[in-house]
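Take a look at the protein record below and tell me what you see:
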Amino acid sequence: MTSTHAHHHAPADLSPEEPPRISVSQLLPDVYKAMVRLDIAARKGLDPVLVELVKIRSSQINHCAFCLDMHSKDALAAGESVERIVQLSAWRESRHFYTPKELAALALAEAVTVLTDGFVPDEVYEEAAKHFEETELAQLIASISVINVWNRFGVTGRLGPGHYTPGDHKS
């Protein structure tokens, strides 16, 4: 482990890390490579920080610890503030930390991530459509969809957080 490991300064009495179950990405390298290409194609042209915010919010909803670790670190590396990352789970109460465009993207991310909660409401879609031109909106929808696939790999495989360093993965 490098000195950047999450547990470096942690007390010795932490709970043991859950062992991973299955790595779809390792077992199916063609699927992993296709997912990475999909991720790159989906986000192309979008503000990288906006993409990280959306990925963190979807990962919070899906309780994907691995993706939360990765995308919080990537957001910090991209210049995002700790404060805005911390406030993401309560963004409706912290609206003044985000731009109207970011708020529209976060609302859309939640709606697309939790399709069973009233589908994607017209008002959420229309607000996003006001802030993103059509191709950009399609890219945002694609990026939200891609993080939801990654979340499902991570949660089902029980991939452990704390080991990621920005730049470890190509995506």
Residues 134-157 form the longest helix (24 residues). The radius of gyration is 16 Å.
